[in-house]
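Q&A log
Question type: sequence-to-structure
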Amino acid sequence: MPCAGPERETRRAALNVSASKAAQQTAAWRIECFDIARPVLQRRAVVRPETEARLVVGFVIAICLALAAFVVHALRGVRNDENFAHVLAAALQPYESTVGKVRVAGDEELALLDGELRLSITQLPTERQRAHFHVRARWTGSPRSNPEACLMGVGPDERAQFANAQLVFIENILPPLLSIVRKTPLLSATPFHGTEAWSVPDRRGYSVGYSPGGSPGPELNDIPPFTGLTPPADGLLHIAKVVLLAENGHWLRTIEIDGQATPIVDQVWAEASVNGVLALQFAAFEAHDAIEDEARRRAALVEVERGPAWLPLEDPCPADLLPASFRSESYSIEACRGGRLRDCLDECRRGSAVSCYGAALGAQREPVRAAGVQKLFLEACRLGFASGCTNGAAGRLLGAPMDDCSFRTFDAVCTRARDPWACTMFGRELLHGVASRRDLGRVRAVLVDSCPEAAASDRGNAVGDEADAGKDGDAVGEADFGGEADARDDASARGEGAQAFATGAEEAIEDPACTAAKRLLEELDGIESAAAESPRTP
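Response status: OK
Response body:
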């Protein structure tokens, strides 16, 4: 199992010190046992029959063997602290809410996710203050796959080496591996679809940032780490690893697939602003990107049009679906486009909130019934994606004024998740809604949550035109909130407001919400200025 790159060192035979100590101690105890027993046996043999002597011999031997077994067991118990599988199992205990109960089989295998994922750990000979491991995964969902990662732990002694290897595994290997098994971003993993800068080319999977400590140099922020790699086309689960070493003003790049070297070894890759820095990045991937698969796209649209059978028939109020906590997950507007929509629906069914949301956005671009899209937004909401709740509430407003359900949803999602469009929609209703909901005193704080940059705007800057705009709030609202949400011709301006970002550019979704929030703040300034200038009744 040769690893590649700067981690390669001259291998030397590993000495299993703990095992050697155990064997020596066991032998010593046996010698002591028989030394103690010999004179007793000799004396008893003279005065006892031969059969009784044999019984005594057997009895003493049994005691010695039991004592030897106890010593070996005790030494092995101490050795658990020196065995990487046991060290890793202990380190994973704080993550049991994600990985499930961790079970150790022997000294080389961990079982996670209730046995769905098994990790076999092999320790190779130590290399110049480097502990060297290979971690092979077996996943019940893809029994033919054997993804593997080469892992090094650096330090002056075994304890420090194990601690370093444990950190790399938990922060860099485990997140993408768990995510691809569960089909949802877990821990620090980010999904990719083969076109993003951080992706394995033309493959679907998950990756994490550089280790240790993020991007090792600003010049690497926009350079795809796996560019030029030709990944396996077998559709199985694999682990890719890129190793970067800053040396003599350049980054040297090496890529491994499943712990094996690829043709990319010590490649001069980019100019380096640092020197002597080693950085790693891991990714887990499997399926070929399906964006061009028209048959998969059509089949997925039929399912959305009919309403996925695995989703509830009723459409509850999103405010009644809000989870105890919201997920912090990034998404790409391209994630579920074309044939990818089929993948997103499958992942949504398995419990991926971001895939439910992405599927709703992807289907929203197509000529399908709004009801199917609405169900996907609600499922994303139930699973903890805040914008799914916002869009689910906005979906109720098409052609109708804001109802109590949507008002409660925007309020809760803005307050708890600081979702930009939820805050903007809630703030607009506080400013221009029915009399029982208007609360000018709260508008500014709510809209600043939607657009923090707006906090710097001066009150009263717009007394002229802005004050006039404040008198015609609905017209301004329609101009602002109509946005790009033209996928539904019969939608009212208010309903389109929270949907606008769904068909917008892939950049930060805060931009259109922030634009709308700033306009509303200008209206509020105009209203407050006009109120301040009006003559007061004694």
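Response note: The longest strand covers residues 278-288.
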